[in-house]
Amino acid sequence: MRFSLVAFCGFLLVGTLAAVPQASAQDIFLTPVPGVPFSAVVEVQRAVIRPDGSGFNLKSIRIMARDGIGRIHNESRALIPVTSTETPDIEHIHLYDPRTRISTEIDARKHTFYTRTIHHPPSTVPPTVRYGSPSGTGIPQNDFSKEEDLGSQEIEGVQARGVRETQIIPAESSETGKEITVTDEYWYSDELRINVVMKHNDPRTGTKTLTVTNITRGEPDPALLEIPEGYTQAGAAQPPPQASK
């Protein structure tokens, strides 16, 4: 049995650029910066809480890659039961070239793609970067939310700085009549210019953890940055981007 990332994890959109398409603040936002090529596997763990209080655990993986000129590959795959030994199916792939600003959306299930040109410059930092200091966020502190500096640690061979955001939903405003604490944790790598760990915990819906693993520095497989052979263009679109020589 498989579960769609869209159906059970709408916040797991393929995040790449602020406008290409708009990325969820709770996803690994892959920045299209040049000079820092790498490839990696993102491990997704999801604990879902049903309205009746019961729950179940899901998992997935996905490949992300960026070459030396900043072109990116980011994908989403189906969520599968945590006990499964299958490899999750690829559902969607997003390619982006910051030089041409051509964004390509690939539907791996239908073997179709479409492209468009983004007229805004690409964002080079994730929307969740906190630079390790609550005072540097520009977000006012109040009685219902706070930020905590978690310091630095090595994750998958890179140094990362962490911050935890805590939101308090008062009992009178919650559906259960009890106070609810929602937390989000981000670990940002200056070396890779991405968040390498993201954790979300909401007692009403469950938990989600994304971890960037198997980081390989250097140029990725060029095939990851191209439209797969045999895919057809869908809808009104521009010609597909040409692979760099």
Describe this structure in words.
By secondary structure, the protein is an all-beta fold. It has one domain: outer membrane lipoprotein receptor (LolB), chain A (Clam), CATH 2.50.20. Helix content is 2%, strand content 44%. It has one helix and 13 strands, in the order αβββββββββββββ. The protein has one helix spanning 5-8; strands spanning 38-49, 55-66, 72-77, 80-81, 90-97, 102-107, 112-117, 145-155, 158-169, 180-189, 194-202, 206-217, 232-233. Strands 1, 2, 3, 4, 5, 6, 7, 8, 9, 10, 11, 12 and 13 form a 13-stranded mixed β-sheet that branches. β5 and β6 (102-107) form a beta hairpin.
CATH class: Mainly Beta
Structural class: mainly beta
Roughly what fraction of the amino acids lie in strands?
35-45%
User: Terminal Cα separation, in Å?
Assistant: 42 Å
Main sheet attributes: strand count, strand direction, barrel closure: 13 strands, mixed
Reconstruct the topology from this structure.
Blueprint: H1 5-8, E1 38-49, E2 55-66, E3 72-77, E4 80-81, E5 90-97, E6 102-107, E7 112-117, E8 145-155, E9 158-169, E10 180-189, E11 194-202, E12 206-217, E13 232-233
Parallel strand pairs: 7-13
Antiparallel strand pairs: 1-2, 1-12, 2-3, 2-4, 3-5, 5-6, 6-7, 8-9, 9-10, 10-11, 11-12
Descriptive terms for the model:
disordered C terminus, outer membrane lipoprotein receptor (LolB), chain A, mainly beta, 245 residues
